[in-house]
Amino acid sequence: MAVGGIHGNEPAGAFALARVIEQLESGPSLMRGDVLALAGNLAALAAGKRFIDEDLNRRFARRPIDEGVAEDAQRQELLSALDDAFAKARGPVILLDLHTTSGEGAPFGVFADTMVSRNFARRFPVPLVLGLEEQLVGTLVDFVGLEGYVAVGFEGGQHDDPNSVDNLETIVWMALAELGLVTRPADADRRSLEQVVAGAPRLLEVTYRHEVADEDDFSMLPGFRSFQLVEREQVVAEDVRGSVRAPKDGFLLMPLYQKQGNDGFFLVQKVWVFWLWLSAALRYARAGRIVHWLPGVDRVDGDQHRVLVRRHVARWYSLQFLHLLGFRRLEESGDALLMQRRAHDLP
Questions:
Q1: pLDDT value at position 304?
Q2: Cα separations in angstroms, 14 against 1, 60, 255, 308
Q3: pTM to 2 decimals?
Q4: Which end of the chain is more exposed for a tag (fewer CB within 10 A), N or C?
């Protein structure tokens, strides 16, 4: 399954899917499996806006429709289509969520932090960003991951760049080839993506999110792009309070160059592949069963996938260990931090 246009000012994903479906219908049929292509926020796509009332990609949850929010009707239509596909599936289900960014930069991927999603995401030769799901609540990728399916999101490039459509189409074809659904080999698509992302780090983790509100009058300084290095205290934007400075060294991710949206920019840092290997080893060993042995970490009664962390007691390594096991921040209140891992982690 692939979804494009959840944000209405990001039509490249929908265009890419239309190309793929047209070729599948006019050329050789699928060798096996099914392909479901969905356009996301139809009203926002028609208007050319990120959203009408609320960001659709922050509202994915099983809850009643709010009739005062246009996106909730779109959400219910998408969830109905997905549920129908889940029910009819004869084998594994894979979701691709296709996006673009307001600033320039190489394509990259994000995923629900489960081993099944991570293993699939690592097949693609693009930068992969860890920890974004901890910063953004209610995304489609996170929702489908919680349902127990493979879910990977891809940013194809800048909104208005024609190459973004090409990049996302290449990603979809590569996914179909990797899954054995089409005879088209993945090698050419892999080489194409490698050329597009040449020079960009391959594995990164979010270390900072700069949240903005309408009243901030946030304005990113011109010329920044994703995966550009910035230094601590470097001025990167302006708002009503004056200069906005990077709080630390890092790679800039998704600088905001559009009116709608509350993510001014992110900072990410490189991650050694060793930590992915260690994380996988710990998860396959089911080390999550002993996290309550860590200082300041307690199980939540009746839920093996949630822990309560008392930060005045927990050491730095305790939080890092929890991250390696797939636990992510869910709620925080004062000194207490509620963390949760997905029930569907291992293959």
A1: 81
A2: 13, 19, 23, 41
A3: 0.94
A4: C
